What does this fold into?
Amino acid sequence: MTFPPGLARTLPIAALALFGGGAGGLLPWWAGIGGGVLAVAAFGAAHVARRRGGRRLLISLAAPAVRRGERVSVRLDLARGAGETEALEVGLVCGVRYAVREYRRRAGGDRDLRRTIKRDTAYEAFKPATPGQPVELVVPREMPYSHEGQELGFTWRVVARDARALRPDPSADVALQVLP
It folds into this structure.
């Protein structure tokens, strides 16, 4: 099982709180659960605030929906007090979500059929951007259109990021509807 990056770092803290980490393991079980929830919530809030560094990047689309093969005009602006930027980029990203059926062995030798959801990037293309100047992006004609099904889904996003060397890139994104 994979966890989001912030949760993966929080699990040892939550396990410690859940299974008697505080006060030498003398706390009742319900106090351990409360501590674990508090630890997960505190770290999750800090992680979300750090990941949302892109709130200083503002994206405007000329049209919220385009057809495959058409251009979308994007304008990138910086919020007041945004500070310095290194290398602004704007791009199109198509994410794919698909269901996979997997067999897993259980302890008794039996097999379980499980449905898991996988996510991947089907398309990604970025261009350099200057605040206040429009950037033209083209949705490739051969790529899929937006679709949200139970087994398969494609979501398109316009992403703006401030590419930084040796540091996390602050980014912001907005949904784009791609029509057939």
Summary: The first helix runs from residue 5 to 18.
